[in-house]
Design a protein that fits this description.
mainly alpha; Helix Hairpins; 2 domains; flat
């Protein structure tokens, strides 16, 4: 009876196309899960060969790779929703899922910025030039700030540039006042 109602409302051809779309979406999800798991294993093996476990804690490496794995899952879930071609369902879910890769990219930018800033700070520290403490701290905070700004711009990619710039100026002012207050109260 249900099939007859669907047949009258949609027609047999549309039902067949819908079944094919559902099957295709399920295949995309299964492929995404497979790719996420394999990707995490390959990244772990690469990290062990590169010796990252000597530089970072294993729990941090596991967290980073888990975030990447779930990003792959979400991206393929997004592809599956688009393959279904149901505008009422996919439009708001797809738009909300686009933020996840931007957040992961921003997280990676912040980690990279912190690593570069720390590396350069240590190089200046080892050089023992006059005023190395001030120079190394200034360089560290400047490089880290630049990477955080790029990360914010990546995260807020869906907003217009004037709004993003205003958010960055406000956050910069708040952080500058907090740092100044911290130095004065010390």
């Amino acid at each position: 009876m249900v099939f007859e109602i669907l047949y009258k409302d949609f027609g047999a051809e549309e039902i067949n196309i819908s079944i094919i779309r559902i099957f295709w979406a399920l295949l995309i999800i299964v492929f995404g899960i497979f790719l996420g798991r394999i990707g995490k294993k390959v990244l772990k093996q690469g990290a062990l060969k590169a010796g990252l476990d000597k530089v970072m804690k294993a729990s941090f490496i596991e967290l980073l790779f888990t975030v990447i794995q779930w990003t792959i899952y979400i991206i393929f879930f997004n592809f599956a929703l688009e393959a279904l071609k149901i505008p009422a369902l996919t439009s708001w879910i797809v738009s909300s899922l686009k933020i996840v890769p931007a957040l992961v990219g921003s997280l990676l930018l912040i980690i990279l910025g912190f690593a570069i800033a720390t590396y350069l700070k240590n190089i200046i520290k080892e050089s023992k030039i006059d005023g190395w403490q001030i120079l190394s701290n200034t360089l560290f905070y400047f490089i880290f700030y630049v990477f955080v700004v790029f990360a914010l711009k990546m995260t807020l990619l869906n907003f217009d540039s004037a709004t993003v710039d205003a958010i960055i100026v406000v956050l910069t002012t708040i952080i500058a006042v907090a740092i100044a207050y911290w130095h004065v109260s010390k």
